[in-house]
Amino acid sequence: MSDTVACESLATEVLTDLAQMHLRSVASPLPQHPAAFGWQVTAGGVAALAARLMDALIQTNPTKAEEIADWYGRLVDYGAAAAGVYSWVERRVAQPAGADIDEWVAAARDLAVQAKAATAAHHTPAA
Predict the structure, then answer these.
(1) What is the pLDDT of residues 77-94, one digit of tens each?
(2) Burial group, residue 57, by CB count within 10 angstroms (0-12, 13-18, 19+)
(3) Where are the alpha helices (DSSP H) in the chain?
(4) Whether the predicted pLDDT of 59 surpasses 70
(5) CA gyration radius, the chain
(6) In whole angstroms, what is the distance from residue 108 CA to residue 25 CA?
């Protein structure tokens, strides 16, 4: 029984963090830069989705909720670039979709370069 309480505690903590992250992402004032606004809205939407999924998991499978909460904590501690995340995306998402993850990574890098250039241009004073 104490394991279940601990499980619900950790999972509830993650649920709370995700819900708060979503609320912060939609609180005014919102960023004026289009790229920053887009990323903030995207992050908020993902946080809202994750919070709803965690809530459903807590209700249906507290043990699995504990596993996911523990994984999420380690992901946050070590950063989203951890090798395990890349491997998981490749194995569980890209391969079944018939996609090449290296193409996804290259496209993401191209978009990051474009966003950096747009940000620099946005912040450069006119001559």
Answers:
(1) 665 555 677 888 899 899
(2) buried
(3) 2-26, 34-60, 62-78, 83-89, 101-123
(4) yes
(5) 18
(6) 22
Length of the chain: 127
For residue 5 the two structure tokens come to: 């309480």
The amino acid occupying position 10 is L
Q: Which candidate, 8, 112, 124, places its Cα nearest to that of 55? A: 8
Instruction: Judge if the upstream peptide bond of residue 125 is cis by omega within 30 degrees of 0.
Output: no
Q: Which residue has the tokens 């005014």?
A: 28
pLDDT one-digit tens code per residue, 9-39 = 789 999 999 999 889 888 888 888 787 888 8
Contacts of 22 (CB under 8 A, 6+ apart): 44, 45, 47, 48, 51
pTM reported for the whole predicted model: 0.67
